[in-house]
Amino acid sequence: MTVKTRKVLRIWPSSAPRINECAGAAYPLTDSVIVVQPSGEPARVGNAIHALAGQIVRENLSNCPDATGYALDHDVLDKVKDITIKGIYAAQMWQEIRGEFDLETVEVEKYSKWMDEEGDGPILRLSGYTDVRGLLLDGVSIGIIDWKSGQPDFEIAEMEDGDGEDIQVLVEKSGSIHQLKCYAKHALEEFPERTLVRLHIGWLSERYYITATYTREEIDAWWDKLQYKIRNWDGKTFAPGTPCKWCRNAIGCPAREKYMGVAVKAFDSYPPPTAGRNGLAQDDPKRYAIEQRLSNAYAQCSVLEAHIKIFKANLKQEVAANGPIPDGEGKALGLINVKGKTVIDPLAGWDKMKEHFGGNESELLKVVTISSSTLTKAIKDRTDRGEKQHAVDHLIEDLENENAVIYTPGYQKFANIKDKRYQPALDI
Ligand code: SF4
User: Fold this and answer.
1) Could you tell which of 22, 27, 30, 229 is best to mutate to test the pocket of ligand 1, judged by most ligand atoms within 8 Å of the CB?
2) Which of 56, 76, 123, 322 has its CB surrounded by the most CB atoms within 10 Å?
């Protein structure tokens, strides 16, 4: 008797967006596999917020509890206000949707594991934690909450349906939907009698959430595609670029190395600009051809810009892992520590600062300014949706009346705007 052993591949929800772009990311390629985990301050703030929101749901709270303990635990005490603001919204959001849930079934930070043993090729082991999961009282759905502490990666766009009716659709800006669908897959596997999954995605910093509902068929079809990509990977086709940043194969992946090499070559031999813009005169017959070339050049520059960003991020990872890169002439490209920004709380330190300025308040006042973006964000954070812009305008108007607004001149930048020549002279 021959026993066939099958390889088991571990798939984490957070790796699903990357695997969808580059199936090679599902396979450990070299011995020097690294698990890249975000560990900076934003990641720690995110963990503190998740823990706080977890308590809100676990204890079914209507208000945000004290966040100090969570901030301390994650070494981000200076961010306690920010964490609290997001916690307040998590409590509001939970209040709005908890009525849908059978509270007895709600679980926080729910660990799930599911193995797909069907089909040829490796067994796929999908495991991970879902922020909140529970059965809904409608008897057919499973509810899932995913807290997001960063910037939204979905947006609502206004569109027309086939009958010309205005509808709102969800437009995805990154591949993170693949992560959320992993949670949906887990839930549907664990509750075979349920047919729908309602995903509530809460952007705590923006104070809004969206809900997307998927049928069992939709989630199964999605998984079918992803598992097919993984199991049928030819072992040599990669899609290096953006997904490499958090890939476990990042150091040592041949495709990523080649990609970096191509970038080096491209930047090294990038041709210098040619002289003259005479062709841009209004009456020049070559004008249109030249315009086209300028537009193409701009588009290519934008692509190059994106490549430069990715290349630099990958190179930074390389240096962090393997040390400085010598340039052969006595210097080396290394990483240095840049001190974080230090900001003074003027209210708390006012008296002390005045003392150090010899009691001269007017001199001190000259150095204390608040950027309007900081103020705008703060006022928006404490204002309900729909009222935000009004609150900002109102505040700025009041401040203008007090001569408290200092304007610095604006500047021009490139943007893709409409070509006036293609617009009707009159709006009919
Ligand atoms: S490092 Fe990049 S190219 Fe290589 S497997 Fe990972 S995502 Fe794909």
Assistant:
1) 22
2) 56
